[in-house]
Amino acid sequence: MKKLIITSISAGLLLATSFVSAEETLPLQAVNRAGEVIDAALEAYGGAEAIANLNSVARKSHFTTWATNQSRSPGPPWDENEQWNFAAIDFKNETFVGKNKGSGGGYDFNGSQVIKGDEGWQVSYRAGTVTQIAEPDFNTTSGPFIRVTAPLLVKQLQNRRQTSHWLGEVEFDGRPHDVITLVMEVGPALSLYFDKETHLLSRSERVLPPFGQVDYRFTNYETVDGIPFSKTFKLYVNDQPNIYIDIKSTKVNQPIEKYAAVPEDLKLVEAAPPQPTEVELQEVKEGIFLVGAAGTYAMFVEMDDHVVAVGGTAGIPERIKALREVVEDKPIKFGVMTHHHNDHVLGVPAYQAEDAMVLTVKEHEPVMRAAATDADSLKLQFVEDKYVFDDGSRKLEIIDIGPTPHSEHLLVAWLPEEGILFEADHFPNPTNGQMAPAQPVTKRLAEAIKEKGLDVKLIVGAHSPRVASIDDLHRALQLSPVKVAQISP
Length: 489
Ligand SMILES: [Zn+2]
Known about the structure:
Radius of gyration: 26 Å
Strand content: 35-45%
Low-confidence stretches: 1-16
Bound molecules: zinc ion
Strand order of the largest sheet: 7-8-9-10-11-12-13-1-2-3-4-5-6-14
């Protein structure tokens, strides 16, 4: 039966092919006009030969970023951060170097990624370590740099013109533009806006689930070695400013090997084993479960006649399902949301579906309601400083340790009898237990533990399958950030 259907489809295709005439169909027009736009763009960017010969680009830039739905407070204006970036690409040698230095959300970073063909390294200047990348991928790693560098997008169009369609003509910034598509080696298609008069790229757009519409603006063109590069760049996510880039220097067709050198004075360390991809359940202590996979974990605490769930990251329904294999009948009566960031409120609909009461602080109410399936019927319990569950046999405290450099309010779960603390986003805990110098957020967590007088023995978190000891926290606090390497090569 199946075979018959396939046969009839291919017969249909054959038939259709024979009916295509010289007349310009919509798809044919889309391909032809895209070709015209690409040719005009190549001309505007210094000519087809110049773009074909554009083999390496090195740029230093200053980034201003906005932490949309990831700021200390729940609404705009979003926290503004800055960072320095250096990126260099060499297509023939499939070499890419990307360095980043800055801070945001209570984290400092200073590191780089180096890809040389099928070898790659992750460098943390802050921790003073180098880690070999298991599966280096030149296309994936260099993609973000190509997407913000107009001549490199034009080079992509030159090499991949068969992927391009003309979508139409639109007004942008008061000027008529042609919009054509580009499908890069990795990721969803881009729609590129070329000015009909200058033939330069003004804008690029793509839809990136789950973030939504990502919109790139290329401004302030300046010619470098006969090729126009935009000196400033803006990225919007769902119409909200996300990144502003001010390019400080651009070098074209110069060797980049010296930038791609892996620092020899840093310690080579083994990469942490990847996190499990299938949901795993760990019983940390009797009736206390850490359940999750792939970077998102929740803690379930068994009380006398119900369960309290802590954490709202991705995949709560699957984590509840895994819990049900060991705790079959007790209802989940409470779901504790650690904070308001968009990756930590995904569990709200899942707890609502369980008919659970969601615990949060009053200030985060609008975010919780917005995340719910039905905003009005969401049951909320506000935590003021502390909320205590005590059924006579087990005590569980929900404590607001805010403000922290990450969030004005942050709820942690504390089991005083067992000495177990659950936290989110304040204590990076790699699978191999290899601690890096404590981040500002971690220092604040340690302070709060002291202030509240918590005799912590074990720490579990929203992003790691590893149960950490209090010694791990102390080790991170004892390590100092290594003072090496400027962002400038
Ligand atoms: Zn967060």
